[in-house]
């Protein structure tokens, strides 16, 4: 009897049967279990169910056994709220371009308690698709036995979660516009997400959430979503987008989430509990414009900052020694291998920060030229530049051309490095499982791909591989 996502109703049924005699019709009505599910539960309870005509009860002394069987709720530590406050105290600052608006500590606590009440968190696998609010850490504090993973585009958030959880929450990097990493695809029973509040953003995150589910029709997708009650059409558009993905609304809990900011929607959002239908496996297209702010916002769509002249200058730099030039999309989900004598150009002018390093890992070419914002996080100061150069030094020699070809952009030119090192086979096969390209890969990394790791873990892999180079045979 796998009751992970139905734990609450089955706990209630067992409690009612343990309290005394109950008619079957009353049991269905009080618990909300479908008739067939209630019958299946009684069959599972077997001889521990006593019957008197139409009345039923649980045999005295068996309640504890069956509550253990369906999964108990946790007893919250007395300082749970304080622990959550501590996690949030030094969370990386919100990035407006990623629609970060911080949820209140009370909301994060409420989310953890709600998840534990409704699902057997000790047995289900839960994935958080984006987690700047650190709901995963709240659940970890409440349920040390929970199986948790976080997917996020913000390497800072992933590092914070990894450090605060002491590695007990799996962290995986992804920009969902380009795809979902294999490390979390088809692994979850429950997925929680607080997406960008645009129809495009909600649909994309919800679609990726469905991809996370091992069995979509028996899993659940929980979404935060808010809209101004002055503009109900926005709510209608988003709800229609979710319905078009094959999601049904099992529940909508008004005003469940509260935020510091987001006053246009009353600093609040509803909780959507979505039950995927069999056709919900369909994937949404990876729309670029999903946010409400920044260069990749819905409002900014069609106003690309990279002009024809800018891209022409990029091509000229890539082919400056007469080599052939080919363009590639800003997508690192698959390897990109160029023919000998060919340079690869990429327009990364919409890069919020993490694209550049991962593109350099994904592309194998004699030369790569990438157009990035002049204020790109990897270029803003000498320390950031040195860190990027060191990160890819086993594969590429970098030239960082600030304010090129104009004061809004920079160009990063990467020329292939020759020579052998322990890191080079791993860096040139970033999409392979680490255990296949690194003979001494730690057990917790062997099944993962370098391209999916948070950046701080990529740095750690490099450190270990560099140590192997310096170890005498």
TrEMBL record:
- Look up the domain of life of the source: Bacteria
Q: Which GO terms describe its biological process?
A: methylation
> Ranges for the N(4)-bis(aminopropyl)spermidine synthase C-terminal domain?
80-264
User: Which InterPro entries does the entry mention?
Assistant: BpsA_C, DNA_methylase_N6_adenine_CS, SAM-dependent_MTases_sf
- Keyword Transferase listed: yes
Identify the keywords attached in UniProt to this record, alphabetized.
Answer: Methyltransferase, Transferase
- Name of this protein: Putative methyltransferase
